[in-house]
Write a structure and sequence with these properties.
The chain is mostly beta strands. The protein has one helix spanning about 95-110; strands spanning about 10-15, 20-30, 35-45, 55, 60-65, 70-80, 85-90. It starts with 7 loop residues before the first strand and ends with a helix.
Length: about 110
């Protein structure tokens, strides 16, 4: 089983809201915890009214990347089984992950 690290961007199936199927979406790895789980943060290419969203563009990556400019959503954290990860898409630069984690702390402390 592949080991993922904080800063990795992975592609994972997300269920439709009506649970009729799934769509592949990127997510940011926040932690690879003991066992088969990873803690992830959602990524979207559509900007909405999420005041916590952190932009990603081609300059945000150490390796790999995403096809569209996107936004990490620190207010949307979830846990997933590593076996559900389809592939690794890249890794973000350290300042991006630092900003995401600081934003999560800010949300939790508010």
């Amino acid at each position: 089983m592949e080991k993922f690290v904080k800063e990795d961007i992975v592609v994972i199936p997300f269920p439709f809201s009506d649970l009729s199927g799934t769509k592949r979406r990127p997510a940011l790895v926040l932690a690879d915890v003991k066992g088969n789980d990873v803690i992830l943060c959602r990524i979207t290419s559509k900007m909405n009214k999420d005041t916590y969203a952190i932009p990603l563009n081609k300059n945000s990556f150490v390796s790999g990347g995403l096809p569209l400019d996107s936004f990490v959503r620190p207010s949307r954290i979830f846990t997933a089984d590593k076996n559900s990860i389809i592939r690794k898409a890249g890794s973000v630069k350290e300042p991006i992950i630092t900003k995401v984690i600081r934003t999560i702390f800010s949300i939790l402390n508010s």
